[in-house]
Amino acid sequence: MVENSCLNLSRSEQKRAQILEAAIELFCGHGFPNTSMDEVARKAGVSKQTVYSHFGCKDDLFVASIKSKCVVSQITDELFGDASKPETTLANFGEYFGAMIISPEAITVFTACVAQADTHPEISALFFDAGPQNLLNMLSGYLEQVDKHGIYRFDDPRSCAVRLCLMMFGEMRMKLELGLSVDELIEGRPVYIRECVGMFLRAYNVANF
Length: 209
Description:
Elements: H1 2-5, H2 11-30, H3 37-44, H4 48-54, H5 58-72, H6 86-100, H7 104-115, H8 121-147, H9 157-177, H10 183-186, H11 189-204
Helix pairs in contact: 2-3, 2-5, 2-7, 3-4, 5-8, 6-11, 7-8, 8-9, 9-11
């Protein structure tokens, strides 16, 4: 997987990608407290010094690994570049975000943070800042720009962004968090996500106010 995804990267970028991939796998498999920088280095096939040269500490590596999941899922600033076409942009966001939040890695990291919230609340804070907070900042910033075009009105972009994201969680995400089967929901998931985006846009269209 690393080899295929790193063909066009520099040597330093390849090592960074290897480290992030190893870190995500270990954080998901062993949890944050039980993952060491030594283990990440061994799994990535690099020296411990290389890991520290890219990421100053384990907290930084955890944050970077969470953010990298958004990048892999194509949820970046570039996605929100055109405020004149929110219908297309939010449809793409819905597709990428809807898939990301039901991925095994997302479920594993989230449930691990919840399970350790009493003993390691700092891990939950790191996860929130790197994942949900980072994503909501991008989305709310985009909605603020869309608002200026006058077709949709987002008086409180942050709250609007939260509503859209939580709508997309749906029954599937809830059942996955509980370890329940979602076989009956898979086929209808794309339609559900598209309908969430459509409902969201209709709700904030100034023509409906």
